[in-house]
Design goal:
HAD_sf (chains A, B), HAD-like_sf (chains A, B), Haloacid dehalogenase (chains A, B), Rossmann fold, nine-stranded mixed β-sheet, homodimer, 2 domains
Chain lengths: 342, 342
């Protein structure tokens, strides 16, 4: 091989190194743009609306560009990131706990909604509304430290199964929403969960399930107290409601934990309406999206008449204001991750 | 130029490109390790203790390695990231507001600590303790939306000046602490402010001043309410205290907003003691650090007898438990950014 050829070879090798370098530099963002960031979503106006919004707010040359620090996205959890039927999964946890600890609380036998819960009368439990459910949830979570609570939830998730799908509850998360979260995160959105559910319950499993850090989870809470004894420091959960992160509480919770107004808000029930209104009032471009449960076969179909996850006023307002509404049956190729073809 | 020389030149150029590529790829982390990540800190046991801790918890081969998701660092603000003398800067803001709005609140003339505030009797104001100060701070922040409040704070920061340094208050932040925050962030720590001060006050300016996102700021708060009217959505600040993030409130605030126990906790007063105890009780390696104000010439010297930022029990406990104590006078080359040599 001549010296020229050797040098040429070296040049080619160096060019390969440089181009390899470039390809490892290519972020997921670029890859996602080129292929399909939402593979479990059918083509159509819903998917297009999402892609169009994210494209315009992340393009510095677009008049609708939004700075990275303002790309706040908020997601309801129950019925929006995971299922909520036949009733809220945290309620299933609470009922199991109430059964396990009923003997320590004789007063529950004569007070609603505890009485109905012990009797297993879910239909009656649900008539006490979301506040009643929260009471039940909260009451079954007290008298322990946050560490003890975490252990109880972890144990419950590992051992209990959803009655219809016979699978652990935290596997009933929505594959298309996981892709949406990932797509937003890849585009430098900070994604937050803003749930009516208990903040401590969510934080046990949601970081791993959704790739959302514990400190980006907002929810309802009990009051807690700090206890210190000889180097041992714990947070104890008191049996007093601190904050209910539902309806008009959601914008308050967002202000408390996030501070900025979201530019992207995703929910599925009337409990999310104020959160969507709050995002819609942003002086930056914003995107409001409702998940409409229309799929009785693969998941559930419910809206205006449902006790759990009622979507009535929200649906009207979404249609009136042109917010995006996901039609689960037609917009989603699969519902749960376990339905993905291997 | 011969073809060989031309090709050699091309090779050299490509090598330069490759090496340039490498140097732009090199993260700040690597640069910081090689040079000095804490240039405003004098060499000594304090600086060494910080570097040693960060080095060991970020080294996957070290038995004290801590996963990125658990690298939570919490910082007090007043007297820890910026000065707090002659009295809390937010109190200066509150007093200015109280003067500006006193005519709307005739009841303040006969009720403490408002009376003392209107009379400009700071010494008496301070005798009402941190709770009294918070009352004053909170009372002067109400009857407006959060957006209106943000504008008032922004305006105040732009126009008011610290009496000793004759500079805007938010320029009196500590250069060595900025470097410490940056060093931790570079090493994949999530840095949080955990302050007794008002969360809404802090969030107006702290994101820009410290490079800490608004949602990583924890502080005391007023209750708020969501108001919606025909597409206009606001959060209104009520004149009722929601949460006081001081002393035993700090671990509660950390649980509420961050969820995880910190592995790095930094404070300067007895109000931070429980936060440091909380971090010290972490089952992962943790680092507790107190800033001791020992520099009457460049800043202030105070500890056990001070009304503002008293450090008494905390100093004893730090010494007893071997926590790191910063000696401001001897450990810091400069105090404020404006003292840096250009």
């Amino acid at each position: 091989m001549s010296i020229v050829k050797r040098i040429m070879l070296l040049v080619i090798l160096l060019l390969i190194i440089v181009s390899c370098k470039k390809s490892t530099d290519t972020s997921l963002k670029t890859i996602n743009y080129k292929t399909d960031p939402l593979p479990s979503w059918n083509e159509g106006k819903t998917k297009k609306a999402i892609l169009d919004f994210v494209t315009k707010v992340t393009d510095p040359d677009n008049p609708n560009f939004v700075r990275v620090e303002d790309r706040i996205a908020t997601f309801d959890n129950d019925g929006n990131l995971w299922s909520e039927k036949p009733f809220y999964f945290q309620l299933a946890f609470a009922l199991d706990r109430i059964h396990a600890t009923a003997s320590d609380h004789p007063e529950w036998k004569t007070t609603q909604p505890y009485k109905a819960a012990i009797e297993g009368n879910i239909k009656e439990v649900l008539t006490y509304g979301k506040h009643g459910l929260l009471k039940l949830v909260m009451a079954s979570h007290t008298g322990m430290t946050t560490d003890e609570f975490n252990n109880i939830v972890t144990e419950w998730l590992a051992t209990s199964k959803h009655p219809r799908f016979n699978r652990p509850y935290h596997t009933l998360i929505y594959q298309p929403m996981l892709e949406l979260l990932d797509y937003l995160q890849t585009n430098d959105f900070k994604t937050f969960i803003v749930s009516g559910g208990g903040i401590d319950f969510l934080r046990v499993w949601a970081e791993e399930a959704y790739g959302i850090p514990e400190y980006q989870i907002v929810g309802s809470s009990l009051k807690t107290i700090f206890e210190y004894n000889n180097g041992k420091a714990v947070i104890k959960k008191l049996s007093e409601i601190d904050f209910i992160n539902d309806k008009a509480g959601k914008p308050v919770g967002i202000h408390k934990h996030i501070s900025k107004k979201p530019i992207f808000a995703s929910g599925n029930s009337d409990g999310d309406l104020q959160m969507l209104q709050y995002a819609a009032s942003n002086d930056k471009p914003s995107f409001m999206i409702y998940l409409h449960h229309t799929d009785a076969e693969r998941e559930w179909a419910y809206d205006r008449e449902s006790h759990v996850g009622r979507l009535d006023k929200g649906l009207d307002e979404a249609r009136e204001k042109g917010w995006t509404v996901i039609d689960m049956k037609n917009d989603w190729k699969v519902v749960y991750p376990f339905q993905l073809q291997k």
